[in-house]
Amino acid sequence: MRRTFPWHIVVFLAPAVLIYTVFSAYPLFDTLRLSFFTDSTSGERSFAGLTNFITLLGDDTWSDAFWNAMWNNTKFFIIHLLVQNPIGLALAALLSLKGLKGARTYRTLIFLPTLLSVVIIGFIWQLILSPLWGVSEGFLEFFGLGFLFDAWLGKESTALVTLALISVWQFIGIPMMLIYAAMLSIPDDLIEAAHVDGASPWRIFWSIRLPLIFPTLGLVTILTFVGNFNAFELIYAVKGALGGPNFATDILGTFFYRTFFGYQSQIGSATMGATVATMMFLVILFGVMAYFYFIQRRLTRYQL
Amino acid sequence: MTLHNTRQHSRTAFVHIALAGYTVIALFPILMVIVNSFKSRRAIFNDPLALPTPDSFSLTGYAKVLEESNFLLFFGNSLIVTLIPLALVLLFGAMAAWALSEYKFPGNRWMALFLAMGIMVPIRLGTVSILDIMVGLDLVNTRLALILVYTAQGLPLAIFILTEFVSQVPTELKEAARCDGISEYRLFFQIILPLIRPAVATVAVFTMVPMWNDLWFPLILAPGEATQTIQLGVQQFIGQYVTDWNSVLSALTLAVLPVLVLYVFFSQQLIRGLTSGAVK
């Protein structure tokens, strides 16, 4: 039999590979490349070595803004971890209880906000938390906690935490569903056997269920990490591109946008924008590698 | 025995209180916005928690939104830049997944790895260069720019999930078809594609939601009035009418409702897809 060139493989692969390469992979590499170039005032692009990085990390104005955004972003992520994983775990644990009526309705309703756009959610919470409308103040007063209310989104000390909690509120459905699915895949015999051996439900949760869903928690964590370190919409919708008040909510996404596109008096720069994007890429790359090398490797998936 | 039963009951009650409590937290803000969008300005502020009564019912906000903004146009734009990339991602993604899992060719694994890179690295990081390309192709302020970018954005995860499914198609089935002398193209389009339909539904959801909800690329690639998507349109409308609460609440409700309606019909399928995908 004569071997002909397997054109069908090319035909099957070409459309996907072409579109992905031209509009995703190439732009990414080109952006990394651009971070080593600089534009003169006349618009000519020339190689500049590490100048952009030295400016970003060495120049006081630039580095203050960059590290502020980086630090805010880290806090944003840590709040997600601390709040989202325990709540997601608790909801999943409750939902997966045997014979619970209405579990399907609960999970459908709790998942709903996750589907809505971040922009819309941002505006909705801005209204709900507005002292002008007084809805959340009234809500707290109902529980006798009215004194706790403050204009959280407007204050430097609380704005970032509030935004992070809004984001957790919206996306709690994802950890909840992933952990829930992991819990459902634990065989009943295993739980049954522990039960017969006299383990309490509490003990079963800590010693059997939790270790078995650790890989899922790792996955949720890295998904959150990547999502948080290129977040933009929530801050932009609620606080604008400047991440106010006084840059208290400025994260890498908004900093990237301002650097690249310019905002108010600041003139945008494609090459400095590419430099910020490269730094974001390195942060995400670092996170993903850490996940694969440490977490994924150490967590042996239990063979069930 | 009765003691055991009471304990069991109080435990069940506690579980329901906890879950119902959280459900209220999840829905309350959205319901507040929807309910108040149908009330007069005075009623919105005097009694935010009340349902609209014949007295307080008002549609002034909706009238203003539909009058002052091209809401239907934004909506249509969003549909175009979501549904076309969705179809392309599903078709091209399934084709690529089939090629990667079915044929052994040099570089197969590298190609799979190259495509999988896009799952973890957000396409946003390449924005500087994407804008350059779109300027070069004269595609700024066109829906085509968004369609191309969203297709590229959706492909990696689609290929990854679909490869898993395509590889589960039994070998005997493929061999039997090939013995009948069927071409590779007909094998894929007439036999394989219908077989992986359930997986396609899962992928559709994962692909669609981020496209519909995106603000970043519309803001940068297509901010012009004629190509604004619903997210960008709402964002700009609210920026302009921020003190007009009727309009703001109505604009938000209009943006939320289509998704809510779809969710009512497709939620079970969506959640099944999410949980089955996660088990893998």
UniProtKB/TrEMBL annotation, chain A:
Its main location: membrane. GO terms for biological process: transmembrane transport. The chain crosses the membrane at residues 7-29, 76-97, 109-128, 134-153, 160-184, 204-227, 234-257, 269-294. Keywords: Cell membrane, Membrane, Transmembrane, Transmembrane helix, Transport. It comes from the Bacteria. Residues 70-293 form the ABC transmembrane type-1 domain. PANTHER family: BLR7065 PROTEIN, SPERMIDINE_PUTRESCINE TRANSPORT SYSTEM PERMEASE PROTEIN. This is ABC transporter permease. It comes from Saccharospirillum salsuginis.
UniProtKB/TrEMBL annotation, chain B:
The chain crosses the membrane at residues 12-35, 71-100, 112-135, 147-166, 187-209, 247-266. Keywords: Cell membrane, Membrane, Transmembrane, Transmembrane helix, Transport. GO terms for cellular component: plasma membrane. One of its GO terms (biological process) is transmembrane transport. Residues 75-266 form the ABC transmembrane type-1 domain. It is a multi-pass membrane protein. It is found in: Cell membrane. The keyword tRNA processing does not apply. Belongs to the binding-protein-dependent transport system permease family. MalFG subfamily. This is Sugar ABC transporter permease. It comes from Saccharospirillum salsuginis. The lineage of its organism: Bacteria, Pseudomonadati, Pseudomonadota, Gammaproteobacteria, Oceanospirillales.
